[in-house]
Amino acid sequence: MHETAFKPLTVETLPARLGPIAAVAERVGGSPSAWKVREVGDGNLNLVFIVEGEKGAVVVKQALPYVRLVGESWPLPLKRSFFEYHALVRQEKRAPGLVPAIYHFDEGQALTVMEYLSPHIILRRALIQGWQLPRIAEDLGLFMARTLFRGSDLSMEARERKQDLALFADNVELCDITENLVFTDPYFAAEMNRHTPELDPLVKELRADRDLKVEAQKLKHLFAAKAETLVHGDLHTGSVMVTESDTRVIDPEFAFYGPISFDVGMLLANYWMAFFSQKGHEAQGSREEMRAYLLKVIEETWTVFREEFSRLWRTERTGMLYHRSLYEDQGDHLGAEQALNHVLHDIWTEMLGFAGVEIHRRILGLAHNADFEIIDDTGLRAACEAPALTFGRHIAVNRERITSFGELHALARMLD
Ligand code: ADP
Ligand code: MG
Ligand code: MG
Ligand code: MG
């Protein structure tokens, strides 16, 4: 038998195929023929199985040579699983305890065996249900600051970082998805786009918006050319699993070296979309508390990110950039603070831009968010989506001139 020939797992074949792997058998326990296997993948791209036995459970994620959502007509290389595995290993090292533990990786089969997160649920589902998770701002603010700082030239040894950049540079096809779906498709009549019909007039306006289209391409340029750090690349609320007391980030198959600001912008955009979706979820009662909670989470996430990034700047700035010999070693602590202000300012203005276009692509492009999608009444859905689009346009185009959450919260409230 050729061990390396790729073959998708099925619920039926999984026990016999993974039974011989000690890392799996020891955790699941009992005879593989007695394992209970379920396929639970709800994502757009891959297979995800939960495997339960008498001792415990694991999750098995396997890539397919095509996009699951679309089918074999849209091929996508298996190597995304390799990038996901390597990103998870780095994230665990840089921000311990915030990703699932990895038990086994098989490159030929494009499969990863990992910790079964239970009773965790997907953050987006929790927010739709109106849960106010107490830990997400702190945990995800720290996750972003630590992974993004520690993967950059502010922290890493230059040779090691360049080698890592070369490794991830091959994740071309997944970057290509983002480059097209986020930065370009929403702004013309791309084939795979769809939107709520009531949005037609606004969509026409946005596609004719010269300032917005120039801004979106400037952001695309940053995304493609500013290889600052290893980013998660798909850090929306569907890539986070939560309980009241635990937060884990999953699904980094889009990982590549890009701008520090990208993950931050995508995550905050998804919270802003949750905010604008609230009036679609008010059948069971007012969501006013949820609105206030979401705005608080947005601000706190940024504050935690900024404070932790600043702490790491002061204590772990061991890379080639802004070297201490120029600042602290000469007694010039203020110089290091000035440089930090420049770096944080760029992250802030880019973050607002990425957030703006992420909002657009989730309403106008191929991949939509359940926050809006589960609102059946299209008139009501459009009444939620239109203010989100207008908000996204405003923050993308005015990102150099917006300086505070006071302004952003007021803008969100005014448009909602
Ligand atoms: P895709 O890349 O296809 O989006 P994900 O990694 O996001 O796949 O996983 C799809 C779904 O599988 C998640 O939304 C979640 O419900 C479930 N899942 C993934 N990883 C785990 C895990 N470690 N523990 C429990 N459930 C998981
Ligand atoms: Mg996913
Ligand atoms: Mg962990
Ligand atoms: Mg994925």
From TrEMBL:
E.C. numbers? 2.7.1.100
Give the record's keywords alphabetically: ATP-binding, Kinase, Nucleotide-binding, Transferase
Give the highest taxon in the source lineage.
Answer: Bacteria
InterPro entries according to UniProt: Aminoglycoside_PTrfase, Kinase-like_dom_sf, Methylthioribose_kinase
Q: Where is the Aminoglycoside phosphotransferase domain?
A: 37-283
- Pfam families on file: APH (PF01636)
Q: Which GO terms describe its molecular function?
A: ATP binding; S-methyl-5-thioribose kinase activity
| GO BP terms in the entry | methionine biosynthetic process
Could you say which protein family the record assigns here? Belongs to the methylthioribose kinase family.
Subunit description:
Homodimer.
Name listed for the protein in its UniProt record:
S-methyl-5-thioribose kinase
Gene symbol of the encoding locus = mtnK
